[in-house]
Each structure stands twice: as structure tokens, then as C-alpha cells.
Amino acid sequence: MATCIISTNLTRSSNDLGKDITSTGLLGINLQLLIGPTIATPAPASITEAIKSIEVTNSDSGRSGFQIVFMLGRGGGDMMDYSLFNTSLIRPFTRVIIVVNIGTTRIVLLDGFITHYQFSPSDSPGASTFTVTGEDYSIIMDRIKLSMPHPAQPDVIIVGKILMQYGLIPVVIPPLQMVVPIPVKETPLQIGTDLEYIQQLAQKYNYVFYVEPTDDPGTNIAYWGPSVRAGGVQKALTVNMGAATNTTSISIQNNALEPKMVVGVIQDENAQNIPIPIFVPLPLPPYLASRPAHIFNQPYVKKTLFPSEGEHNVLSAYISALGEVDSSKDVVTVSGEVDTPRYGNILRARRLVSLRGVGTTHDGLYYVKSVTHKIERGTYKQSFTLVREGNGSIIAGVNP
Questions:
Q1: Range with the lowest mean pLDDT among 174-183, 203-212, 336-345?
Q2: Are strands 95-102 and 128-136 parallel, antiparallel or unpaired?
Q3: Which of 197, 180, 211, 171 is nearest to 58 (CA)?
């Protein structure tokens, strides 16, 4: 097992990333903090040496956030104020990039901005703390409320155009059906911030929107498209398997009241008031469980009546109903904590991971809903929340 080190040399250049070696001769874990008014650069020693702890939360819904706790002290030259307050780097809307290196692998945990701070002075020497919190890069998209038309532009073009203004790499997935508005009939009107409007357009198609850093510090992607629960699988979380165990705690819950289906009729605006049935019994595949609760608990699945009145046409009604059913699919929730040196990797939100050692009912693939990284000098824990649609594994075995 590699020894974990949170390097005291946090001001290394980018050319030195990942080159720290532990005293055991194995590649270790170290942290780099980049900070700056607009362009983040390696933080000076006066800042990094004052760090007590760092916590980063990445979630599949909402903005990711961070919290950094600094220890404060005053020397002979700090009679008027604490030296940390005299730097221009620790101020609201300073950009912060938090990078973790595991061996030669560089992972950016968060790229965001300071939005709040809390100062807690103490009479005891060295016990004063200064805590800064912040949110991911998307916070800058939520600062100016607008009333702006987007004439003759489909939603996917509007989203791409907005994202390009912020220097983001747009990953925009066109909907299956998309209408180009005719100016004499309809002009899309944005009322609210860019972030609010993009989220509104995402909801229209049962899409998700988030901003996520790449592993090239300072570069972010913006994803607007369907929620994806497929792709590569991260290293297994392991329970009760002797030396292979990498979790320190785990809890599994099954909420049988969560699943729902939607039934009802609508009055289609183009169907001469003929009622059109809407019936959505299942969330969208692929499924990660071999026994999805929506199917195996069918007689007891909650049924929601879709309203017959409103501004829906057939497509928007179906998307709205599908969104309601899809949001109820996370029946099984796994919470726990992983020891990062034992795990040997960073657990990423919005991706798949395998779980093993908890029995055939609960082993298998899960979607990582959130991860909270708790970092102090010498320790690194990751708390996680995993979800899926039911019990049973869809894979024959779980690889390490």
C-alpha cells in the first residue's frame, strides 16, 4: 500500500506534477493549489503552509463546491493584522483550482471561485481560523439577469452560443426532435441569467447541464444533454475482502416508495381537442440492476395522474412525464467512505463504479451521484453516494 503524503511543497511548477516519491519509494498522493484573480497560478508558500484542511464536493446535480480552512498566526511583523489578509489572493471571486496527483496521474478536483469567507479569531495561539468557501466555474454564469431574445435559433444553437462566451468547451447534444422557431410566430426569450436559461432549456428536454474541469488546469467543459449512466467503470469499491478492502464504512438503503409511473391524457393543440393518452411506466435504460424496482415491484409502483390541461403538446407532455418517472429511479442508495491510499485512485461523480463484497443482492454497477473529498496533511478520505434502480448485478463478476 502506498503511503499517503499531502505534499508540503504545494508550489511546484506544472512540469513537476506527480513526481513526488514517498519515503517508501512508492509514488504517493500530493496536492497542488492554484489561485489568482483571473488566471490561477501556483499559490505561494505563505498560503499553502497555512492550509489546515480542504474539502471538495462534486455532485451530479447542482454546482460543485469547496471549502479551505487556513490556520492563522501573527508574528512580530503582523501587529496590525494577520498576514494572510494582506494578500490580494484570498478575496471574493478569486479563482481557485484544486489539483490532486496520484503517482503520475493528475486530476483536477475543482475549478471555481471564492464566494464566502468566515473568520474565527481565538485567544489561544495558533487557534484562529479563516475559512473560504466557493463554487465551481458555472457561478460566473449566474451573476447577470437578462431579458434577451434569440430570434430564429433552435435551443441547441442558443446553448452553444451562450457557453462560448465563457471560454468553456461546449459538449451540446441535439435533442431527437427540435423545432426552429419562425420569427413571425415565436421568438425565444431569455429572462434570467445565462445559467438559469440553460437549465430551463435542459429541463425542457429532460436533459442535464453541468460544468466540469478537465485534467488540464484552467480548462472546463460544459455538458448539455441527456443524463448518461454508461461508459467506463471506475476501480471497484471493496468491502469485507481482507487486504483488498478499501472502504472504511458503508451503508445501503432501499426505498420501496420511490418508484412511480405517470398516466393520463392531454389535449393536443393540433388534434382538435382529442384526448391523447400519456403512459410512462419505466425510466430510460440502460439499467444497472438486474431487478429494477419499477418492473419487479410493478403492482406497488406509485401512479401519478398527468394533468389534462395546460400548455403541453404531445412531445412536451411525454418529456415531462418521462422526467418525472426518470427522477424516481434511484431506489437503492449506497453511502460510505473510502480510504484513498488503499483505493489508489480518485472516485469521480457522474460516472459508473463497481461495488464488491456486500453479497449478490447489492454487488455490481452503480452510478456515482456525489463524492466529497476530505484532505488534511497526511490523510485523504472520500465520502460517496451511489445509486441504481434496484437489486441484483447485471455483470457476472466485479473486477478489482
A1: 174-183
A2: unpaired
A3: 211
Q: What is the mean pLDDT of residues 173-191?
A: 80
Residue-wise DSSP of 333-370: EEEEEEEHHHHTS---TTSEEEEESS-TTT-EEEEEEE
Question: pLDDT per residue over 250-296, tens digit each?
Answer: 999 999 999 999 988 876 666 555 677 888 889 988 999 999 999 99
pLDDT at residue 56 is higher than 70: yes
Task: Name 159's Cβ contacts closer than 8 Å, sequence gap at least 6.
Answer: 170, 172, 198, 201, 224
Dihedral (CA of 336, 341, 344, 348) sign: positive
Cα–Cα distance, 122 to 181 (Å, whole number): 61
What gap in Å lies between CA 110 and CA 98, rounded to an integer? 5
CA–CA distance, 298 with 31 (Å, rounded to integer): 49
27 secondary structure, DSSP code? B
Beta-bridge partner residues of 277: 265
Q: Which amino acid is at 203?
A: Q
Q: What is the pLDDT of residue 35?
A: 96
pLDDT value for 271 = 58
Which parts of the chain fold into alpha helices (H)? 45-48, 155-164, 194-204, 293-296, 314-326, 340-343
Which carries the bigger pLDDT value, residue 134 or residue 316?
134
> For residue 86, how many other CB atoms are within 10 A of its CB?
11
- The grid coordinates listed for 309 are 390541461
- Bridge partners of 371, per DSSP, are 58, 384
Segment 158-172 shows an average pLDDT of 95
Say how many residues make up the chain. Answer: 400
Taking CA atoms, 148 is separated from 71, 79, 80, 154, 395, in Å, by 46, 52, 49, 15, 49
Q: Which residues contact 246 (CB under 8 A, 6 or more apart)?
A: 237, 238, 338, 339, 342, 343, 344
Mean pLDDT (whole number) for 92-96: 95
CA–CA distance, 157 with 175 (Å, rounded to integer): 11
Q: Cis link prior to 286 (omega < 30° from 0)?
A: yes
* Integer Cα distance of 132 and 54 in angstroms: 10
Q: Which amino acid is at 128?
A: S
**Better pLDDT: 189 or 139:** 139
Q: Which helix (H) or strand (E) holds 242?
A: none
